[in-house]
Amino acid sequence: MKSSLIIAAGCGAIAAAVPLSTVHNTILRRAPQYTDIQLLQYILSLEHFQDAFYRQGVANFTQAQFAEAGFNADFYSNLTDIASHEHTHVTSLTTTLLQLNVTPVAECDYYFNVTSAKGFIQAAPLIESVSVSSYIGLLANLKGDAFRTLFSSVLAVEARHSSFIRASLGLQPFATPFDTPLDLDETYTLTQLYTLSCPQDNPLALKNYPTLSSSFTNHAVGSLGSKDGGMIGEEALFITYGKDIKIGSDCEPIYAAFLTITGPIFAPTIRVPDNGGFKTTVPAPPQGYAPINGFVYVVLSSSNTTLTDDNILAGPATIEIWPK
Predict the structure, then answer these.
(1) What is the pLDDT of residues 178-198, one digit of tens each?
(2) Cα 92 to Cα 102: distance, rounded to the nearest angstrom
């Protein structure tokens, strides 16, 4: 169900008056305090997510169907290798937790809503990019070194998977010199798009932000990212789904925060009354900031100086940005 941020009807003129110039700041996010065991459990849940995705794809679509979609035998062989890698990650992390006398988190029930071999591969960039970004974020939050080598080793493999999938779809395989970290809540929000249910004893209670879709107003793009995309300086539209989002006061401005490893880059938005969305111009990164290229994450926020659980209103959305 489509919904929108709840703001006063008379705020449109004020929002439209906000200059379309980038507002930016280097931000250190407030990180929740998780133990390294909890982080290990979370990464296992993420590997369950990927394992289920590839397991279902290989089971549901034959090599012939992938060939009909334009993916040759070499691609299919590599795809089955990726599926095997993900299952190996699950078994390795499960064994590690059992050796520590910790009950491993169980797999959730997922629905990926893919009905063709081509659709399966088109969904894969998000699965892999979220994995890479999650590992980067988790590495920054580890307190000890016990799992650092394991996490780093798996991260390197996930990055190779991501590049392979992107190249197979005609996307730039390594579009940016820096991948973007995501925190646990942001990763959880994206994986929940495909999650039907989870065992009640799963150990982490995380925040699920409202879903945010993205598109470029001049040409189509999938709501969660696809080969179609746009460039810096073009207009993008973001629409929330699932539930209404209340903000603290009437006429409060809403910003699109484009996430990078050097901090979020904020851009003011203008409300679009006919669809409840918010449009903005994709900003150019200021000097000293990481490029905004490739698979980019965007959240809506009531702040243009910091991102916290209190001011993130929706997202992340994912959007493909081409280099000029």
Answers:
(1) 999 999 999 999 999 999 998
(2) 14
